[in-house]
Design brief:
It comes from Callosobruchus maculatus. Helix content is about 40%, strand content about 15%. It contains 9 helices and 9 strands. It has a 5-stranded mixed beta sheet, covered by helices on one side. A 4-stranded mixed beta sheet has the order 2-3-1-4, sandwiched between helices. It is globular, with a radius of gyration of 27 Å.
C-alpha cells in the first residue's frame, strides 16, 4: 500500500515537473514573439521598412555600402537603376577576352569596371561593363551593329556580343592589363564546399554568419537583376516614357540568395500629374474591369517579351491567377523572372 502511494506521488511529481517545463517554454516563446513584434514596429516606424538598419541590406557588396553608406529603400533602388543604365552586358569567348574588350570599349567612353560570369554546362561567358557616364553607353550602342537584319529581329538593347577582329578592323589603343572586379561571379557553391567552410568555424554563431556570407546575393547578382529590369523598361519606353520596373521581394530586401528569382512590378506611369497643367494627353479608354484590362496587357506584354527581347525564353502568361503575371527565364543573365502590372 505504501509502495503504491509512493509511486503515485512520484508520478504526480513527474507530471508537475513536465507541466512546469512546458510553461517555461511557453513563456520563452511569448517573450521571443514580443521581441520580434517590437523589432517589427521599430523598423516600420523609421519609414524605411526594408532598410531600417545597416545590417538589413546584406545583399549589397562591401564597396557599394562603403561608397553610399546607409540608404533608404527607394534611394538605393534609384542608384542601382542608374548603375544599370551605365552598363552593358557583352558575351565573349572567355574571361581572357577582357583585355581586348576593355581596349575597344574605352574608345567610346571611360570604363569604370568589368565583371565576369558564365552560364550553363557548356558555359557561355559574359562580361558586365560599367561606364563612368550614361552617355558613354549611348555612344557605344550607336556604334553597334546587327548580324543580318533579314534573319533576326533588330532589337536595340544593352545586350551585346563581341565579334572577333579581322584585318580591316582598326588597331586598338593598348592599355594596361585589365583587372576583372569579379571572375565567375555568379557561381553557386555546392553543399560540400559550404560544409567545409562551416566546419572551420568555432561555434554556431560563426557558422550562421558564414552561411549567410556564402549564400547571399552578391553585387554582380544584384547588377544583373537590375539590368534585366531595365530591359523590360526599354521594351515599352517608346509609348510609356515614364515607365518603371521595380524589383521587389528577396532580390532587394536583403534575404536574397544566389540564384533567387526576380519579382518585378511594372508601372506604366510613375510621375504625378500637376493640377496646374492645362494640356492633357489623349489616351485610349480602358474597357471592362481593372482585372480584365490587366489580363489583356499581360498577354500583350508576354507576346512582346517572347517575340522581341533577346535572351528571354520559356515565357508563360498566368492570367487566371489572383494577380496575373508573366513568368520567363532570361538566359543571358540566368535569372527567373515574375512580372506583374499595377501599383506598389
Amino acid at each position: 500500500m505504501i509502495g503504491n502511494q509512493r509511486r503515485i506521488c512520484e508520478k504526480d511529481t513527474d507530471i508537475f515537473t513536465w507541466r512546469t517545463n512546458m510553461f517555461k517554454i511557453h513563456l520563452q516563446c511569448q517573450r521571443w514573439k514580443l521581441r520580434k513584434l517590437k523589432m517589427f514596429y521599430r523598423i516600420q516606424n523609421t519609414g524605411t521598412r526594408y532598410f531600417a538598419e545597416r545590417r538589413t541590406f546584406p545583399n549589397l557588396s562591401h564597396n557599394f555600402a562603403e561608397t553610399h553608406g546607409f540608404l533608404p529603400f527607394l534611394q538605393k533602388i534609384k542608384l542601382r537603376k542608374e548603375e544599370a543604365k551605365r552598363s552593358v552586358l557583352v558575351q565573349v569567348q572567355s574571361s581572357q577576352s577582357c583585355n581586348e574588350l576593355n581596349s575597344y570599349c574605352n574608345s567610346f567612353g571611360t570604363v569604370k569596371q568589368m565583371l565576369h560570369y558564365s552560364v550553363g554546362v557548356e558555359p557561355m561567358h559574359f562580361i558586365l561593363v560599367e561606364f563612368e557616364e550614361e552617355s558613354h553607353v549611348d555612344n557605344l550602342l550607336s556604334n553597334s551593329s546587327y548580324v543580318d537584319e533579314t534573319l533576326i529581329v533588330p532589337t536595340y538593347s544593352h545586350f551585346l556580343w563581341f565579334k572577333a577582329s579581322n584585318k580591316k578592323s582598326p588597331k586598338l589603343k593598348q592599355i594596361n592589363a585589365t583587372v576583372l572586379s569579379a571572375e565567375n561571379g555568379t557561381r553557386v557553391l555546392n553543399n560540400s564546399e559550404i560544409k567545409d567552410s562551416l566546419s572551420k568555424c568555432e561555434n554556431v554563431s560563426e557558422q550562421m554568419k558564414m552561411l549567410h556570407l556564402l549564400t547571399k546575393l552578391n553585387d554582380l547578382g544584384s547588377r544583373l537583376r537590375y539590368l534585366t529590369a531595365l530591359q523590360i523598361e526599354n521594351m515599352v519606353a517608346g509609348m510609356f516614357p515614364h515607365v518603371q520596373a521595380y524589383p521587389f521581394g528577396s532580390s532587394v530586401n536583403g534575404f536574397g540568395k544566389m540564384g533567387c528569382d526576380l519579382d518585378l512590378v511594372l508601372r506604366l506611369v510613375d510621375k504625378k500629374s500637376s493640377e496646374n497643367n492645362r494640356l492633357m494627353f489623349h489616351c485610349k479608354a480602358s474597357t471592362g474591369s481593372e482585372r480584365s484590362t490587366n489580363q489583356r496587357h499581360i498577354e500583350a506584354f508576354g507576346d512582346m517579351i517572347h517575340l522581341f527581347l533577346p535572351g528571354c525564353a520559356q515565357v508563360r502568361r498566368i492570367i487566371q491567377a489572383r494577380i496575373p503575371i508573366i513568368k520567363y527565364h532570361q538566359k543571358l543573365t540566368d535569372v527567373e523572372c515574375d512580372l506583374s502590372l499595377g501599383n506598389m
